[in-house]
Amino acid sequence: MADDVKKTSNKLAEMGEDVIKTLEKEGNPSIDIPLRTLSNVVFDKKTKQLMLGDKSAKRYFFNVAHSKKFMQTMMVGGFCKSLLDEGIHASIRDMYYNLKRTLADSNENTFDEQGESDPLIVDLEVALDTLREHLHLTTDRKGIVAGDVIIEDRGDEINWGKLGSGGWSIPSTVDEITFKSVKAEFVLVVEKNAGFERLHEDKFWQKFKCILIGTGGQPSRGTRLLIQRLNSEYKLPVYVFADSDSYGFYIYSVIKSGSISLAHVSDRIATPEARFIGLTVSDIYNYDLKKAIIKTREVDIKRAKELLQYEWFNKNPRWVKELNLMIEKGVKAEIEALSHRGLKFMSEEYLPDKLRKKDFID
Amino acid sequence: MADDVKKTSNKLAEMGEDVIKTLEKEGNPSIDIPLRTLSNVVFDKKTKQLMLGDKSAKRYFFNVAHSKKFMQTMMVGGFCKSLLDEGIHASIRDMYYNLKRTLADSNENTFDEQGESDPLIVDLEVALDTLREHLHLTTDRKGIVAGDVIIEDRGDEINWGKLGSGGWSIPSTVDEITFKSVKAEFVLVVEKNAGFERLHEDKFWQKFKCILIGTGGQPSRGTRLLIQRLNSEYKLPVYVFADSDSYGFYIYSVIKSGSISLAHVSDRIATPEARFIGLTVSDIYNYDLKKAIIKTREVDIKRAKELLQYEWFNKNPRWVKELNLMIEKGVKAEIEALSHRGLKFMSEEYLPDKLRKKDFID
Q1: Where is B294: in which H helix or E strand?
Q2: Which pLDDT score is estimated for B330?
């Protein structure tokens, strides 16, 4: 068993043993779970990440309001421990079905719906200071990668540069892969698969010595973890290429600073050094894309104003300028808008120009 | 230029030349486009596929109601021809942005929204008897594959059995890949990525000598084309493994017989020999999954009754039995329900048992 797996398995065992010890002393077992409410999420200026604050709550075994949830938490812990000990993984839905049963001599089910078991996983992540991936619970895979990188995964040696048009499908759990060779100068994260395809076909990652990652919208946890690993282990700059709209900007901020709902794992999955390469609202004017804009709707403007409230946007005059420009002009644009200038404009003119000028926003 | 590409490029050139010739003779150019309305979709009993009927309509250049659409169709055709001639691909959104412009001396745009250009692609597919993929227009990629298969794609040799936990991400265009070695006895298509992960981790494809494909819901065109190629070129039986609900059954029928909206390409992307391996409603009872069922809602029953109207379901007594059982008992189940019997129950008991008994539905 790998050290990491053993460590997590031990944490789960300790949690269980503590409960038994307390019961033997006729005490009231409890687990301490940091609060994940909005009021307990703070933006840490130093690390530039969304983090959980200090507030926490105790869940007691002998408390009518807590006891079912306490039992369920223990069941989830036990399930994860057996995954780790057997060296297998499961989806959170597999877990729900596996744990669902009727308690003996009753009509009471352990779980009635998946909505009951899902939040307990996050509780365990927080309480045990671990990651869901380390509990061997998989998340939906999404994201593709290409580049001059050789990895080892489940005994296979995989060259991300030799996968044809397909690329490597980023799995849910990337902390178990080993990097054998990483030949790249930066990581380019593209919000859209169509953008990935375009750049991949134009051999952008070869010409510009980068690792190309397509997230297919908001990146999966696996993709965020991979970006974080490439940045922290290989000191590769990370440039995020997303639509010029509130949603694209938000995707960038999630990669960089984490999200409110996953604030408890920001330190593992966020990449504070990530920078935004485009598409900016100014780019629409600088690169003559006015014919390819989309008019903003009310919801876009509302969201842009919300982003202006977040200190990880409003402390930077460049973001304030871009967001105000969007609000004032009422325009947004997708990365595909660059095709208006020709299909290869993205890979041969726009991105090379932005890289040369180092025109990034933090 | 490959022969296929040249052939499609020539078809497009001919279409344009015909228009010019007609104009030179002071005639009224037109293109003939088969109707894609529901009334023109038929189920072909012999091929077991949904096909377009004989009805078609002419689109004229000199007809006020047609002329803009005629011009747009020619623009789309011209765009695709340049893709083919340059040997590059584009998404349909790229195409829209590329073609969108304001006509000289007017306020009239060539296209105002993507909703105008998308249907013209299908028109061209039908009119020229080709595939969108052959016009070099990409679709969203989705789907993963693993197995003892070696392919060549864009000059890279890729072994689907040596890609670790990730698998090969199925690209939008699979007709350009070359199979070098295919060592498999059948293809197992799994509706859900979680099911793919489970079976992949349990090395199911190695133990049972199959090619494992995860579709992540309704399969993409690329995935359907790949299934079709493996079946037609290597005579591999195809077994579809989907949820025991109307949506899962429908996914199976789309793989097997095509869909109403894509009836014009059924002969290229459907696999009439595909068979359904499970999950059936009977399986819920035969494999003791009653504790892991979901109660049907009104919409499930309504959909099940609709499926019973389709002759590609109601001609088979097994499907009639399964659908009626669902309606009568009011139950459905996801493939993850098998985890109720243990995480490896799917790969070590359920699927081997179904394969051994050849318990498939056509």
Answers
A1: strand B294-295
A2: 96
Of A157, A165, A340, the CB nearest to B97: A340
Rounded to two decimals, the ipTM of the complex is 0.88
- Supply the residues of A annotated as catalytic: 97
Beta carbons of A253 and A219 less than 8 angstroms apart: no
Whether B103 contacts chain A with CB within 8 A: no
* Dihedral sign (CA A152, A157, A161, A164): negative
Judge contact between B274 and B256, C-beta under 8 A: yes
Whether residue A183 lies within 8 A of chain B, CB to CB, comes out as no
Mean pLDDT of all residues in A206-219: 96
Q: What is the pTM of this model?
A: 0.92
pLDDT digits 0-9 by tens, B12-33: 999 999 999 999 999 999 999 9
The CATH code for residues B144-357 is 3.40.1360.10
Question: Which residue in the set A97, A152, A176 is minimally distant from B339, CB to CB?
Answer: A97
Provide CATH 1.10.10.10 ranges for chain B: 3-138
Phi, psi of B187 (to 5 degrees): -115, 130
Domain with CATH 3.40.1360.10 in chain B: 144-357
Which pLDDT tens digit goes with each residue over A37-64? Answer: 888 999 998 989 999 999 999 999 898 8
**pLDDT score recorded for residue B193:** 86
Nearest-by-CA chain A residue for B292:
A97
Write out the two tokens for A60.
Answer: 């007691």
Structure-block tokens of residue B186: 């059948």
The CATH number given to A3-138 is 1.10.10.10
Structure tokens at B44: 């072909």
Chain B closest-CA separation from residue A112 CA (Å): 10
Residues of B in contact with A339 (CB under 8 A): 90, 93-95, 97-98
Quote the percentage of chain B above a pLDDT of 90: 82
